[in-house]
Structure formats: C-alpha cells, structure tokens
Amino acid sequence: MLRAAGVELRIGPRLLLEETTFTLNAGDKMGLVGRNGAGKTTLLKALAGETQLAKGDITVSGSLGYLPQDPRSVELNQYTFERVLSGRGLSDLKRELALATQKMSSQDQYTSEVGTKLYGELEHRFSALGGYSAEAEAEAICLSVGIPSRLLDAPLGNLSGGQRRRVELARILFSNATTLLLDEPTNHLDADSIQWLKGFLRSHKGELIVISHDVDLLRDVVNRVSYLDANTSKLELYQMGYDTYIKARAQNEDRSKKERERTESEVLRLNRQADKMRGSSSKRARKAKVLDARSSKLESSLQQVKVKDKVARMRFPDPLHCGKTPLQGTFLSKTYGSLEVFMGIDLAIDRGSKVVVLGLNGAGKTTLLKVLAGVESPDTGEVMLGHGALVGYYAQEHETLNHEETVYSYLRWKAPASMQDKELRSLLGSFLFTSDMMMQKIGTLSGGEKTRLALAALVTTGANVLLLDEPTNNLDPISRAQVLGALKGYKGAVVLVTHDPGAVRALDPERVLLLPEGDEDFMNEQYYDIISLS
Q1: φ/ψ of residue 395, rounded to 5
Q2: In what order do the strands lie in the sheet with 64-67?
Q3: Which residue among 90, 102, 211, 335 is least enclosed by CB atoms within 10 Å?
Q4: CA neighbours closer than 13 Å in the CB half-sphere of residue 340
C-alpha cells in the first residue's frame, strides 16, 4: 500500500501541489498526467522519498522501486549484469560467496571451516532470493528491454545514456518491488520492448504509478488516472481507465464552463438592476447594496474554468549563412574498451540538408552525434567544419545542462552578448518559463522543462547545423506538436536521431544514415516502418 496524507509540494515560493490525500492498494495502477512542468516528476520523487515535502506524510508498505526520468549516478566500473542483479541484492551475495569459496580452499583448517560455514549461510540466502534461476530471470528481463547479451559483461561506463537507462529499468523490474514508481519508462525502448513492458506492468500485482506520454501504454495498463493541473495546483483523481478518464474530464470541463457562463450572466443581471436603483432614494440605495452583495458573493464563488494549457511558441530562426558543406566526417570510429561502436564512418552534411540516423539500440547513434558535436573525440578520423558553420547540439540526456545554474543564467551564458536582458526574458517566456522559474535551478526542472530550455538555447545561437538526439522525449502531445512544427520550418541542416516516426515525417529527410555500417541511402517509405524498431 502507498498512502499520501496532506501532501503539499513547493519549489521555492512556487506551489506545485496543494494539500492532497490519496491511497493506492495492491492492483491499483495509476497514470499520473498533466502538462510539462506541472510537477509530475517532483511528485513521483516525493513519493519515492527523494525530495522534501512542504507538508504531509507518505507511507509505503512493502518494497519500493523507483525509475527516475533522469539517469541515476552509478559506479561506471560496475558491470551491467551486476547492476541488474543488485535489484534483489544478489550481486553483493555473489561477491560474498566468491570470498567464502576462497576461504574454504585455504590450507589453514580454521579459515577453511569458517569459510564452509559462511558459504552455507550465504548459499541459503542466495537460494531464498531465487538463486541461479533468478539470474536467468534477470537475463530474460534484460533481453526484453533491449539489452543484448554481449553488453551484460560490459562496464556501465561503456554504455550509452539510453542503454544505462534500460539497465536501470531492468534492475527495477527485476527487484520484485511491491510498489513501482516509473517516470517515462518507455524512453529509449523499441516497439517490441514497449509491448513486453505493457504485459509486465499489467501482470504486476502490487501498486504502480507511471508517468508517460505514451498514450497506448496508459490505455493498456492503468486502471485509474490522476491529473495534476498546472493552473490550480490540484490533483484530480479519476477511478477509471485512461479512455474513460478522457471522456469524463472533457464532460467535467464542459459542465464547469456552462456553470460559469450561467453565473456570470446572473452577476451581470444583478449589477444592471443595482445600477438602476442607485441614488434615487435611500430605500432603493439599500436594495442596490443588497444586490451588490449578492453579485460579489456569486463572483467570489465562481468555479474557475480550466484555461487551456499554454503552449510554447517554439520557432527556430533563420540560420546564419554558411558554405555549401558546413559539416563533414571522415573515417570516424569509436570504441569503448573492447566494445566497438562504429568503424570508418564517412559523411557530408550539405547546407540545408536533412538526415536521419537509423540503427538498432546500441548501434552508436547518440555517440556519433556527440562526436560530430565535439563532445567526444573519435578514435580515428576527423570532424571538419566548413565556412561559417555553427553547430547546435541537443543532447537526449540533457548532459549539456548545468543543474546548479539557474534557467536565466544558463540562457544568458548560451546567448550572444548582443542579446539584451529584455529579449532573453521574452524568449524564456515564449518557452513557458515564468519570472519565478527563470531563477529556478535547472536541476529542479522536469524533463519536459529541460527539453524546452535546451531548445530555447538553440534558438539563441542562429545555428546552421542542428544535431538533435531524441528531441521529442519527455514532451506532452501539445509541446511535441510545437517542436515538430518548428523542426519542419527550419531552413538549416539537421541530423536527427529519434524513435519517433512523427518527428521524421515532420523533418522530411532526403537521406538516411544506417549504423553501425555507415551506409547511406535516399529516404523512402520502407525506412519509416523500422524507425520505431531502431
């Protein structure tokens, strides 16, 4: 069971959630929805005990597994499979068993006897947790979420950000936690893995709270919905599935709007009647005061109709002029330890061209963009910028953002010195950052807010080559549509990595680059069929 009692959330002076109480019991699967920046991620962190409450208490019966939206800091020398097994504490037990085995083989009789006794105790605990059959279960989960067997013995430091997040998802699912709190679990998963995850979550017998912009997952998995309203800071609870919730919320908003219209009409009638009575006599003046009082009471009791969620007015400006081929790469190769990511990649990005990079998970798509952006160095080959080239890089894990900086100071640093303070604030406002939020630390932003900030920073540069790595992750449907609209109208060159077929159609690329081989082809309809699988 999970119970939140009188919970209130704030970031500085900003109220995210007014006092709220709710309970989840075994089998309850809640979808937590609301626009980007409403506070969904902060609420999930609070339920996981990872951020402080302004008020209230949270009680969790049983074990808890929490998948954050941003990747956790982990020991990069730890091996992939060891990290997954740590979900049940099996990795530590295996190390202790290995040490006990060494003691058992000691020439010293006392040490050997101690080792034998210790080994028996550890093996009993290991068996109680599932033992070697649990290892097979863990490996099956890894494969199901898109972690190939060849990566199980690789250090986490050799994996991409997306691969490490899949490892964290596998660890949480393997943990057998009673309560699961999952923030955007489908990020970096291909279509087959998402389908498998739906089945896993449907069969989960404990409690589940999931934040996801994958409507199909919400539709297939959740049996109740909580809507966090960014305008009122209220959590609206619906004891129903996602499709029924959509209909019920639309009906509630329509009913609320009609009630307000009727009340406003009555207020107008009372005000007109009171105006007719003013000043003609003391008796009529007293009646006017009574009518004014009734009118004021009605106005104060008006139920606030939900205003439409604001939408960021995202637009990429015309790029700065550049030469015919602003970006080239010759014989680019990258390896991590013994893991060969890609070898001998040649590419040329012409002015205004649109290229989508395709490949299976782990094929090196993110790594290639980092190399082209100068974030990482190639092991072989060279990246060359043409005349007037200015590259803008959007990182899917937001690793280019300094979490200790404020929203405003980060954009001030990224923007040209010629951009005035008023222009900067206006730009941030167009991306839905209020005055209070401009002074907020980046580390406290939601994934969607970080996406908007990173895109706002790109807007300031006038870049003529954009390297975009999963730019629609963490965005609600309205914001996603805005990003895709801005992408469609951009006149510079774009190299795009995405699992989102809609993003590719909006870009309308001429070419596709296939990794890890590095083959190029003209874009055609057959590639759209494999984008979500890549």
Answers
A1: -95, 130
A2: 64-67, 179-183, 207-211, 29-33, 224-229, 234-238
A3: 102
A4: 10
What is the spatial distance between Cα 81 and Cα 88, in angstroms, rounded to a whole number?
12
Alpha carbons 184 and 525: distance in angstroms, whole number: 29
Structure confidence at residue 311 (pLDDT): 59
Give the pTM. Answer: 0.73
Q: List the domains of the chain with CATH numbers.
A: 1-29+36-62 (3.40.50.300), 264-301 (no CATH), 327-531 (3.40.50.300)
Q: Phi and psi dihedrals of 221, rounded to 5?
A: -115, -45
Q: How many DSSP H helices and E strands does the chain contain?
A: 18, 18
pLDDT at position 301 is 65
What whole-number distance in Å separates Cα of residue 126 and Cα of residue 497?
Answer: 42
Residue-wise pLDDT tens digits, 500-519: 888 888 888 999 999 888 88
The residue type of 274 is A
Nearest to 353 by CA among 507, 531, 530, 534: 507
Mean pLDDT score across all residues of the chain: 86
Give 271-295 pLDDT, tens digit per residue: 888 787 776 677 777 777 877 888 8
Two structure tokens written together for 84: 């997954």
Q: Which long-range contacts (CB under 8 A, 24 or more apart) does 152-155 make?
A: 152/79, 152/80, 152/81, 153/79, 153/80, 153/81, 154/79, 154/80, 154/336, 154/337, 154/339, 155/76, 155/77, 155/78, 155/79, 155/80, 155/337
Model confidence pLDDT, tens digit, residues 145-183: 999 898 998 898 888 778 888 999 999 999 999 999 999
Per the listing, tokens 């993003």 go with 503
C-alpha 229, offset from chain centre = 18
Residue type, 38: A
Task: Answer whether residue 127 shows pLDDT above 80.
Answer: no
